[in-house]
Write a structure and sequence with these properties.
Blueprint: H1 8-15, H2 23-26, E1 34-35, E2 41-45, H3 50-55, H4 62-73, E3 82-85, H5 99-116, E4 120-124, H6 126-132, H7 139-142, E5 146-149, E6 152-157, H8 160-165, H9 170-186
Parallel strand pairs: 2-3, 2-4, 4-6
Antiparallel strand pairs: 1-3, 5-6
Helix pairs in contact: 1-5
Bound molecules: uracil.
Length: 195
């Protein structure tokens, strides 16, 4: 990404033309991201599923419904964060995106992060964590821990789809969400709300 300034809208317009990998050919919609263009908290998932591909919006299927509940637990909603994915086009049958697909798509995510300059990034699941925190990230052992990414605090939690499949992971995620809320207060991300 060059150093000229650009907006999320500029970036989205360019992304809509993207043919950087084979996922482009099968997409109904590119799923760029949604939320506040001034958000200081960015949530990053893996890639669009069937519903997201159909609607062009991230996390609108069953995992998205659970994500909304998770946000509500810590008094957040989609208007106060920005939500996007590692890959912007749906992988076939919603399989995990391949490393080369993540790589081909990375200029869009890097551009989004450059525009937003978040103070907190939350990786939703292993795929996002291995791309944004470290290649050998272990979600079972390292979820809920803080890492530094170019001066930004970065944490991974279990992906909402994993929490739909395995409810036994939910109590740990509740603890992680409370830690996220504590960091939001420590950084005074919403100063109008006081301490
Ligand atoms: N899962 C993801 O990782 N991203 C979405 O947008 C939807 C489901």
């Amino acid at each position: 990404m060059n150093t000229e300034s650009f907006t999320l809208e500029d970036l989205q317009r360019r992304a809509e033309q993207c043919r950087n990998c084979d996922l482009a050919a099968a997409r109904t919609h590119l799923v760029f991201g949604t939320g506040s263009p001034t958000a200081k908290i960015v949530l990053v998932g893996e890639g669009p599923g069937e519903q997201e591909d159909r609607q062009g919006l991230p996390f609108v299927g069953p995992a998205g419904k659970l994500l909304d509940i998770m946000l509500e637990i810590i008094h957040l909603d989609r208007s106060r964060v920005y939500i996007c994915n590692i890959v912007k086009c749906r992988p076939p049958h919603s399989r995990d995106p391949l490393p080369e697909e993540c790589q081909a798509c990375s200029p869009w995510l890097e551009g989004q992060l450059q525009c937003l300059q978040p103070k907190i990034i939350v990786c939703l699941g292993r795929i996002a964590a291995t791309r944004l925190i470290s290649q050998d990230f272990r979600i079972t052992r390292q979820h809920g821990q803080w890492f530094d990414r170019n001066g930004c605090r970065c944490m991974a939690i279990y992906h909402p789809s994993a929490l739909l499949r395995d409810v036994s992971k939910r109590p740990e995620t509740f603890v992680d969400l409370k830690e996220l809320a504590a960091e939001i207060r420590r950084q005074r991300i919403f100063p109008e709300e006081g301490a």
